[in-house]
Amino acid sequence: MKLFLIGMPGSGKTTLGLALAKHYALPFLDLDAEIVARAGQVIPAIFLQHGEAYFRELEAEVLRELTARPGSLVLATGGGTPCYHDNLAVLNATGITLWLDVSVEELAARLAAVAETASRPLLATAGPKAKWLNETIAHRKQFYEQAQLRCDTASCTPAAVAAQLSAAGVRMPSAAGLAPGA
């Protein structure tokens, strides 16, 4: 089974994805890291040198390669991944999508660190963070809402997600004898 985490930048996709991969003893991949490895340059450099349209095409290409791989995995996607090139349809067709639904206030607090902003090209060039977050969520929400599962900040723990997956009838492998709801 493949589990795909979607949501805004700063929603915790990588952090939760690593914890879920450990919980289920599955490989963890971060789509942005895979893109960087393929391109040989960091995402801000890709945006600067080639533009967002090129980045989104590369993102879709790498995503399709990862979703076509045999075997189970947990994948943290980029914040905009579900919104371009029918990527959400690919994710929903090849695995389970989980939307990490985090409030604008929480996202702004998480993204307040300079290092976080610098590594996110769309956010780095935006004006006030709260305004950018509100506008971006307004656009992306229509895509995020199509995820098969949804988790808000308060309940996004590996145990809560495992219970949600189990309740939805999703069979994930158990790590070291853990029951899916453990």
Automatic annotation (TrEMBL):
ATP binds at residues 10-15, 120. InterPro entries: P-loop_NTPase, Shikimate/glucono_kinase, Shikimate_kinase/TSH1. One of its GO terms (biological process) is aromatic amino acid family biosynthetic process. Its main location: cytoplasm. GO terms for cellular component: cytosol. Substrate binds at residues 32, 56, 79, 140. Its cofactor is Mg(2+). It comes from Hymenobacter arizonensis. Belongs to the shikimate kinase family. Mg(2+) binds at residue 14. It comes from the Bacteria. This is Shikimate kinase. Monomer. Pfam families: SKI. Pathway: Metabolic intermediate biosynthesis; chorismate biosynthesis; chorismate from D-erythrose 4-phosphate and phosphoenolpyruvate: step 5/7. Signal peptide: none annotated. It is found in: Cytoplasm. Keywords: Amino-acid biosynthesis, Aromatic amino acid biosynthesis, ATP-binding, Cytoplasm, Kinase, Magnesium, Metal-binding, Nucleotide-binding, Transferase. One of its GO terms (molecular function) is ATP binding. Binds 1 Mg(2+) ion per subunit.
